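Lecture 7, part 2: worked example. A protein chain together with sulfopyruvate.
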Amino acid sequence: MSKAARLRALLERKETARIVGSRDALTALLVEEAGFDGLWASSFEISASRALPDLGLLTMAELLEASSHVNEATSLPLLADCDTGFGGRINVVRTVQQFEAAGVAGVCFEDKVFPKRNSFLLGGQNLEEAEEFAGRIEAGARARRSSDFTLVARTEALIAGRGLDEALRRAHLYADAGADAILIHSKKRTPVEVLEFLQAWQARTPVVIVPTTYPHWDLADAQAAGVSMVIYANHALRASVSAMRDVLTEIRVRGGTGAIEDRVAPMKELFGLTDVSKWEEWSA
Ligand code: SPV
Ligand code: MG
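Predicted complex, written out as structure tokens:
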């Protein structure tokens, strides 16, 4: 089964799938090792790992390169975060062509105006006109070579404070245009507005969520409510930042690495993760 077919099967199965934000190949390996179903090439994480804010600064080629590294590291399917699609319809078409050719399983586009701002930043959000965005989805759907390649349309209507009716209107337009799944994003501290959306949506397509601000919503409850896929979008990066800060402070304060030696992964573990013995067989 191709990675694209596997992503599609994850979205269509009964059990809620869980995918994890991965900014690089090593993160992807750890996500696979931990037993998750797939990967999310997060524009927030990839930007942050280059010390850049998530403001649509990275080009399509930069996100494609980072996504390819993530994709090649494991056999898990990758859903790539392609922000607003880097322009108009023709840019979405080329994005679909390039990501599909790279073996990525699917792409996600969001209905904000370029350059987008991360959904959790304070301040307003500019939504793209719904019909214009639907046109991009329609063009992207036509541009793919394999019908298994997944197109996720993400509406930011709730993030922009435009309410449930507007979120539903947009989601229906995007599904009419050929989106395979809808990502409904919310920045509320509870899943209340996502639940309202799910109830009204009636499973017209699979629904994807990013529960960053409502982390206590039980997976079983999300599944019962009809969520097809959960994205843990940024936790591996945030865990790394916390761990690196702690260790670096301690090394500086203590004047050496002795005290933290048993808190960092042994070199042997990295040799294993990077498959050094397999590579050395080539030179033997
Ligand atoms: C990302 O991880 O880049 C996302 C999710 O798009 S969010 O940060 O919630 O916008
Ligand atoms: Mg993003």
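The beta strands are 17-21, 38-41, 78-81, 106-110, 150-155, 181-184, 207-209, 229-232. Residues 3-233 form a domain with the TIM Barrel fold (CATH 3.20.20.60). Keep this in mind for problem set question 3.
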